[in-house]
Amino acid sequence: MSTAVTLNNIVKRFGTFTAVHPLDLEIEQGSFLTLLGPSGCGKTTTLRMIAGLLDPTEGDILVKGQRVNTVPIHKRNLGIVFQSYALFPHKTIFENVAFGLKYRNVPKAQVEEKVKAAMELVQLPNVGDRYPSQLSGGQQQRIALARAIVIEPDVLLLDEPLSALDANLREDMRVELKNIQEKLGVTTVFVTHDQGEALAMSDNIVVMRDGRIEQVGSPWDVYNRPASEFVAQFLGASNLMDVRAEGAGAEKVAVELPQFGKFEVDTTQVPKGNASAKGKLVLRAEKLQLSDTAAKAPTGHVTANGTVEAVDYLGQSVRYFVHVGDEKLQAINTVGQALFDQGAQVQVHFDPQNCTLLGD
Amino acid sequence: MATIEQSEKRAPWVLLSPALVTIALLLVVPLMFIVVYSFWLRTSVGGVEAAFSLANWQEALTDRFYRDILISTVRIAAITTILCAIIGYPVAYFVARARGVNRGFLLLLLMLPFWVSYIIRTMSWINILGVSGALNSLLLAIGVIDEPIQMLYNEVTVILGLVHFLLPFMILNTYVSLDGIDRALEDAANSLGANPMQTFWEVTLPLSVPGLAAGAVLCFVLGAGTYITPVILGGPTDAMFANLVFEAIITQLDWPLGAVLSLMLLVVLGAVVLTYNRFMGLGQIAKGIG
User: Fold this and answer.
1) Quick one: which of A249, A254, A285, B104 is 20 to 30 A from A174 by CA?
2) Domain boundaries, given as residue ranges, for chain A
3) Does the structure show a pLDDT above 80 at A252?
4) What is its main location (chain B) (predicted)?
């Protein structure tokens, strides 16, 4: 696999404010990479630097091995889909999609063919004569995508393209977007603050915070093996508990929690360098199970007793807030299991293999 | 008792009634008088005599003198409008692209001329272009010319004065349009391969046409109806149509002819406004003024 985009120590400052701290990133040819983080984390700034809409203060940007810092945006051959769609309101849908081809000396017959193919790909083959204002938000989004891919860009840049859509439509669109991306095999950089989108669509996720990268990894990695407290909190619901660890570097790390007692965590579950004497145990809310105090926990699980403090019914699942000793823990259980009421005495249990450790 | 629905329907009319009464009394009624006058006859002592005569209309519509001045009025207004568009567009673009405090300051500068009487502003050109004015003095002092040049009192200075007067209307209208264009559209055009010049022609300019057109209609209508500028900055042969109306009514005391001439100008300008409304909608002008 070759590298499509390389960011080499890029920095972006606005006056005295540093939006992006020295940042290195390699994006593999054909992969789908997501920049994920809360607003103000520098993800959009990073995307705009790749796009050429912003100049990095320092560092190099390489596309297919060529430095593009000084290449103006109209010569970069990138497809960008904007949050606001940015369709030209005074042009028909056909003219919108064909816009980029006009500057690429494509023969007229081929223009029609390519536009038609792009519009079929986004499943809107029959709206060529209409104007953007005559389409719904979701349709405009598809056309914006068609317009960006028809030029066969080296990189497809998506700036929160789904955030303006309704919740249901958003989920449909993300499946479709991912399908189209896979079909075309185009290297894609996707910016979002929505962890669901990031987890569902990406080959790799870059979690950012305050202009720095917190973690780069596959969706599975960043979700199950968060490298920092921030990542653990930002993606899904997690319980973080202070622990003391022993035997760092060995096959197993022994940890002790006052409520659950001593147990062992496999070192393969722990990112390198994180098994220090003092640290935090990360336990996903959905890995913590509730059961009757009398029930027998599955083998290997560690258990403790607690009191249900609040119940948050979510439809397919229930979120419990449980007091266990001094800790207040979250547990997300499926509804298939017995439901507990507020104030109920319960047993909580989890498999230590589902935990990971963070260094102090 | 009136239902809520009924009273809700009535509310806009209640609120609008002061404005509607004012317009009716001060605009519609006088206009009706003018229409009636246009068919009356002038008496030898300068009064009017009720009649139904088409003589005034016949005179105004067949006399080449009136036709020529109407054409030159339209020409002057058209040239003024085009100049305002050419000069005003870059300014509007610059203001629309300015940020924060700068933009407020620039908009304030645009409003500033309105604080000084239009007549004073027009007369200031006499001090600049007059025989003993600033420009002549400068040229004499640096030895470019030996004696003062007569630069004032011709069609060019009339147009100059009109551009000076009307430019802010054009700039403000165009600014509103430009300011409303999503910058992402230009970014999108750039990213698709259009260079900045192509982006301007393909995206920015077409999308700013509504503001440009609104500014143009204002400039044209105000320019074609102007009375003061040709009086102050024009020569004896540079009269515009509004001057004829003044001449007929005030100097010759010929109210019926003045009424006919007023209505002719109204029809021409009304046609321009209606054409504009057909393509752009009058709401655009309200945006620019508001």
Assistant:
1) A285
2) 3-224, 237-359
3) no
4) membrane
